[in-house]
């Protein structure tokens, strides 16, 4: 009798669970917002300020308005005169001109110079390596960076990586383009012809080999 009651109770729980699952509806998140890099070739690269960078703003003859500021996660800084100044996505020169326009409301003919420390940059300008790399991670882009430079940064391939099955994903004019890579040829066989230019925003995907 006890075993029959226990079985009946378990069956009842399974029925309830089935009804609950049947009433649940799956939802899918929309795709991530595509942020195009502003760099379209290796020759037109300019560093863009991003969150966590430290910007030093020097206002000539106005030391009280000068200082160093850490860019907030929302891409803004707070100065002594203005609470929210958008700086993310701008070059240091662009920010200097913007600060001159802002400060001209308070002082006459401001002259501003901006320098950057930290060099994190916006996410849209970082390069990402995922999959079967020794140390997959996001990397700050440097001008004229190549695939070989990138692989040195991540420590090369793992033992089981399928390097010649790797892909490079690049967003261009709002379209996602995928390119074939030959990492085994480049790293394991030393074929320098397999080296290619890297641009800000590139994503390298390295699969594992199937044995």
UniProtKB/TrEMBL annotation:
Residues 43-116 form the Polysaccharide export protein N-terminal domain. Pfam families: Poly_export (PF02563), SLBB_2 (PF22461). Residues 126-206 form the SLBB domain. It is found in: Cell outer membrane. Its main location: membrane. The keyword Transmembrane applies. PANTHER family: POLYSACCHARIDE EXPORT PROTEIN GFCE-RELATED (PTHR33619). Belongs to the BexD/CtrA/VexA family. This is Polysaccharide export protein. It comes from Rheinheimera muenzenbergensis.
């Amino acid at each position: 009798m006890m075993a029959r009651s226990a079985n009946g109770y378990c069956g009842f729980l399974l029925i309830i669970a089935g009804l609950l699952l049947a009433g649940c509806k799956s939802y899918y998140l929309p795709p991530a917002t595509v942020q195009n890099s502003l760099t379209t070739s290796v020759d037109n690269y300019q560093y863009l300020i991003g969150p966590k960078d430290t910007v030093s703003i020097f206002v000539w003859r106005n030391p009280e308005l000068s200082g160093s500021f850490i860019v907030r996660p929302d891409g803004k800084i707070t100065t002594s005169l203005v609470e929210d100044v958008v700086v993310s996505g701008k070059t240091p020169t662009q920010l200097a001109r913007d600060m001159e326009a802002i400060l001209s409301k308070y002082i006459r003919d401001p002259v501003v110079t901006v320098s950057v420390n930290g060099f994190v940059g916006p996410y849209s300008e970082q390069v990402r390596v995922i999959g079967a790399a020794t140390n997959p991670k996001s990397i700050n882009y440097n001008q004229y960076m190549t695939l070989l430079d990138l692989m040195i940064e991540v420590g090369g391939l793992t033992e089981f990586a399928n390097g010649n099955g790797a892909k490079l994903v690049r967003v261009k004019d709002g379209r996602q383009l995928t390119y074939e890579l030959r990492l085994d040829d480049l790293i394991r066989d030393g074929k320098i012809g397999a080296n290619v230019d890297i641009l800000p925003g590139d994503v390298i995907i390295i699969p594992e080999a199937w044995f």
